[in-house]
Amino acid sequence: MEKLSKTFSVNLILLFLCSALLIIVSCSQEEISTEEDVQKRTEAVRYPDKYPIKYPEPVRPFIECVVTHDNQTGVVYDEDDINQNTNSFYEPSPIIIKVKFNFIRRSDGTGGAAEADMTTIINNLNSVFNVHISGIVSTLVDVKRIQFTNAGNDTLNSDTYFEIDNPTEYNALLQNTDLYEANMLNIYLVGSLYLANGNAGGAAGIMDNRATIITEDNRHLEASTVSHEVGHSLGLYHTHKEDFGLECADFSNGYTTGDLVIDTPADITFLPTTNIENCVYTVDPTFADLCDNTPYDPSLQNIMSYYGSCRTGFSVVQHMKMNANAITLGITCEGGGNSSSSF
């Protein structure tokens, strides 16, 4: 009996030691895995062919709006047509955002945008947002296209709001209940806009379904200007954002600093224009980060930058964030069912 008790005690001790060893090994493996994952995510930005990994998925489900096209004719089909027509192909359904246009004119009814400009603005937005990312990116994450549709318009004749001179006037315009629609993206087209930081081509709050664009110098017809402000509405910050901390140029802290987007290169407010030619930036060691003195090499093409006409599009993770944020804002088409569309 005593021998049996000793044997049991020895076995219990061995079991405890094995369990402890297993926990240590498991923790070590977890730490190694986490470290490797961070390294891969960082390198995936620079070398996408080397590490085709997945970025985090948005936490909210996507609203389904089925839009498909015939290969030959471009005709749009609903789900029943897809099952019956062998020539049609299926694309991931886009997230369709409804846009309400608010024309602000002088008190006498003059000035501002032409109604025909609505079509140009919608087309410009779709040229930037309505892109299903494919190729190597498709191995990283499934990003849905964002598609905009005209949901109507209103007009307000007011000298006060046509030329906005201060934040008080700006906020009063956005709070005008005769113009605002809660379940749409509201675009206000004003003559000029002067806010705390000076004259602006447009303005929009982060995760706010209201964006203001000026018609002065036809800025409202520039795809990069309108897309930039809509990007703010859908939750994106400037690439040179510093409020969350300075972003390292080696991508090591991109999740938590700068614009909070891992695959947009670190940026600073303004790089010297002498280093920019034909929308290409020549890396200059003089302009380096405070992390490990890595020179900045920003994307001049990113819509959320301040590089004017160089801006053409968004990054993969920016698209992901806007996908989820459009659902959160509730400015998309009615979800859950199938819908035919002629966009």
Automatic annotation (TrEMBL):
GO MF entry, a single one: metallopeptidase activity
Top-level taxon: Bacteria
Family matches, as InterPro entries: MetalloPept_cat_dom_sf (IPR024079)
This protein's name: Peptidase M43 pregnancy-associated plasma-A domain-containing protein
The organism of origin for this protein: Kordia algicida OT-1
